[in-house]
Write a structure and sequence with these properties.
Blueprint (H helix, E strand, L loop, with lengths): L5 E6 L4 E8 L5 E8 L3 H15 L3 E6 L9 H17 L2 E6 L3 H11 L4 H23 L3
Parallel strand pairs: 1-4, 4-5
Antiparallel strand pairs: 1-2, 2-3
Length: 141
């Protein structure tokens, strides 16, 4: 029997953090929202709200690597975010390579007819959904 439960994925950024929602059993996911947080406290308040609302069994955080797969400053920031997320929530948190997800999300939104302003708003959550889709697909035998 496949594992079941809700999963939240995060496309972490200092100013904007995209969030996606998925289901382990079905493998389906969708963009949920973008957290616009001017402060660390505001970001954690929004994450706490999402944790209460969706009660996920697992969390996923995108890991930004450069084109060659090397780590960079943003990689360290995401690792720290993922570690704090796991510590604060008590939920297992997986890291997933997020190379090119923002570009893919922007291209998909452009293809759907989103304006530049609409894409700027939706891109972070759409990237989180691509990260989550990658995670869900990697679990399928």
């Amino acid at each position: 029997m496949p594992e079941a439960g809700t999963v939240l994925a995060f496309d972490y950024g200092l100013k904007h953090t995209g969030v996606a929602l998925g289901e382990l059993a079905s493998g389906l996911c969708r963009p949920l929202e973008t957290i616009h947080a001017a402060t660390r406290a505001a970001r954690w308040k929004a994450i706490d709200r999402l944790m209460q609302e969706w009660d996920p069994v697992r969390l996923v955080v995108g890991l930004p690597l450069d084109a060659d797969g090397n780590e960079q400053e943003a990689t360290r920031q995401c690792r720290n975010f993922a570690a704090e997320l796991e510590s604060r929530t008590g939920r297992q948190t997986a890291l997933v390579d997020e190379r090119y997800t923002s570009l893919e999300a922007d291209a998909a939104l452009r293809e759907q007819g989103y304006t530049q302003q609409q894409r700027a708003e939706a891109e972070h959550a759409a990237a989180a959904a691509l990260i989550l889709q990658s995670y869900l697909e990697s679990r399928t035998p």
